[in-house]
Structure formats: C-alpha cells, structure tokens
Amino acid sequence: MSPLLELRRLEAGYPTAQVLFGVDLEVGRGEVVALLGRNGMGKTTLIRSVFGLTTLMGGSIRLEGRRVSGLPPEEVAALGVALVPEGRQIFPNLTVWEHLAAFFRRPQGRRGVWTPERVLELFPRLRERLGSWGSRLSGGEQQMLAIGRALVTNPRLLLMDEATEGLAPLLREEIWRALAALKEEGLSVLVVDKHVRRLAEIADRFAILEKGRVVWQGRPQEALADPQLLKRYLGV
Q1: Mind listing the pLDDT tens digit for each residue in 66-91?
Q2: Which residues sit opposite 60 in a β-bridge?
Q3: pTM of full prediction above 0.85
Q4: In this structure, which CATH number among 3.20.20.150, 3.40.50.300, 3.30.420.40, 1.10.620.20 belongs to the domain 1-80+157-164+188-236?
Q5: In the chain, where are the structural domains located?
Q6: Which contiguous run of DSSP H or E holds residue 141?
Q7: 3-class DSSP state of 85
C-alpha cells in the first residue's frame, strides 16, 4: 500500500532562493511524523510546499499515489489536506463560531466527522469564546481555533507548523493533549515543533532537516538515545 503522502527528490523554494534540495519523505496512513531542525533549515518551506504555497523546482509530491505537485492550495485542500500555519493567521474580524462554520466541510461516506461541535468538545475553552472576534483571543486560543478550523475541513492529512510556538506551558499542554487525541483517532499528521521530548510521546517517526535536506529519519526513541545526534542537528 502506498503512503498517504510521498515526497520524492523534492526541490522547492521561492523565486529568488531554493530552500529544499532532494527531499525524500513519507507520511503513512494514521502516522504522525515530526519534522525537526534548527531555524532556517527548511521546515516551513517543506510544509508550505505540500500545501502548494512555494515554487517547485524538481521532484514530486504525491497524495495517495496521485501527483499533486504544482496544484494550487485550494485544489490541495479539496483533496483532503489541511494546514495549521505558523502564526495561526486567524481572521481578526470573524468570531470563533464564524471561523468554524465557514470552514466546515462534510465528507462523503466517512465516519467520525469533525463538526464545529466536536471541535468545541476537543477545546472546551473555545466554547466560552464563541462570540469573540479572532483579534480578541489569546495566542493559545488562536492556536486552538487554527487547529479546529483545519479539522472541520475533515482532512486526511493535517499539516501543523510550529504547533506550540510562543504558548504558555498550560496552553501547550492543551495542544499536546489534542494532538494525542488526533493520533488516537488515526489522523495522519506532519508536525513541526521545537519540543523534542513531547513530540517523542506522540510521533511515530522523526525526520531531521539540515540546510534543506533530510539528514536523519527514525524512531523518536532512537533519536533520544543519541545525544550527539540531537546536539549536532538540534542544539539540544
């Protein structure tokens, strides 16, 4: 069976600069893969490339065996990919409920549909803020809403860039709890975050990027057992 997401010799970047160089990466069905690396190594570019937001210069991106390289973001989303972007990008003049209602898309013939109500069960804090504008939410609440907004599109693959960046410890715990629940449900996730040991509790595999190339892939336990690896590529 082919992986859900398959990147082969991917080369990508922006009109004035190439960032990714021959990246090979897979995300299986129901698998959580954590993308690690220091700042500026290409993690965000890789996430954006899968969603059709960069300039592709070579290689391929396939979703369930179908080539999606070069498709615009709206077509990638229609095929079942959802993005929780770095910086959240919440609409300031929409309420929590308006975000969830506007993005809700009911899939055909699937169980376990993510409705706005299910998102509120996952993040009870959002229920208390249903009528609040996006601009009035805390950083943690905005991240919960960004995840909820992605979930109500009912994706097969969730892309998360900087899952807990800038959040207070208690709010980070809410995000980790939600990610664990999504893993338990069998959602495929490609996630970027700096908290290696917390990622190790959730991820099935780690992939480390260095200067736009995948330099290591393996089980989280293997990475944690190799302090020199973490120090060399992550500064941990």
Answers
A1: 999 989 999 999 999 999 999 899 99
A2: 8
A3: yes
A4: 3.40.50.300
A5: 1-80+157-164+188-236
A6: helix 139-151
A7: coil
